[in-house]
Amino acid sequence: MLALADPDLDNGPRTERSATMRMCAVSREVRPIGELIRFVVSPQGEVVPDLKRKLPGRGLWVSASRQTVAEAVRRNQFSKGFKREIRAKATLPADTEALLVRSATEALAMAAKAGRVVSGFGKVEDTLKASETAALIHASDGAADGIRKLDAILRQRGEKRGESPVIAVVNVLTSEELDLALGRSNVIHAALLAGPASKTFLSRCQILVRYRMADDDKTADAARNSD
To answer: Fewer CB within 10 Å: N-end or C-end of the chain?
Structure first.
């Protein structure tokens, strides 16, 4: 008799490379893997987020939503999914968000090393007017006046060129986090130029935004109502 595949767990990162969809262990919805986070169990028996989907062992997938991860902890979903008693810390939702932030700052640092980041209000202003900018970056705790001025320049540029507003505006990192990524102090604004490293940064920012905001899609509410 053939064994049925486990709907909750994958068979490891190597065997799942071609998979593009997985089931969220909490909502039971099948979603693209870009909208989920893979979790594995460490040798110490603790639940660990596998953001790059490369850690060994079987993995359990949860929607990229802080509230849904918290729901998985509350419902002991990790022990149920892995079918053994394991430790999922109450801080797992916050720890996962911290890892997502670190992943984004590391990607921004790589883009800076590749020469794809310009920082400082004046330089950013000039770059927006003259260069093909992939994204405008603001510190999430930056002053509203500077943000408003640069956003206005971005809009004016689009109007002059007849462009639709396709340039991303990123405000998911604090000034301190931007400082860390760019190796300088008091970074409030930056411009991101097009390139492979820039795409990686924007992709990581996208999942961070989803993690913080995805509860608007009612996924977590659906999970709670299924109890």
So the answer is: N
State both tokens at 201.
């940064």
Q: Are 192 and 201 in contact (CB under 8 A)?
A: yes
Spatial separation of the C-alpha atoms in residues 32 and 13, rounded to whole Å: 16
Burial class of 10 by CB neighbour count within 10 A (0 to 12, 13 to 18, 19+): buried
Q: Using CA atoms, how far apart are residues 75 and 72, in angstroms rounded to an integer?
A: 5
67: which 2 tokens? 């509230």
DSSP line for 128-194: HHHS-EEEEEE-TTS-HHHHHHHHHHHHHHHHHHT--S-SEEE--S-HHHHHHHHTSS---EEEEES
Residue that the structure tokens 């953001």 belong to? 51
The model's pLDDT over 108-127, given as tens digits with 9 standing for 90+, comes to 999 999 999 999 999 999 99
Conformation bin of residue 3: beta by default, left when phi > 0, alpha when psi is -120 to 50: beta
Reported as a single tens digit per residue, the pLDDT across 176-195 is 999 999 999 999 999 999 99
Which of 48-62, 161-175, 186-200 shows the lowest mean pLDDT across its residues?
161-175
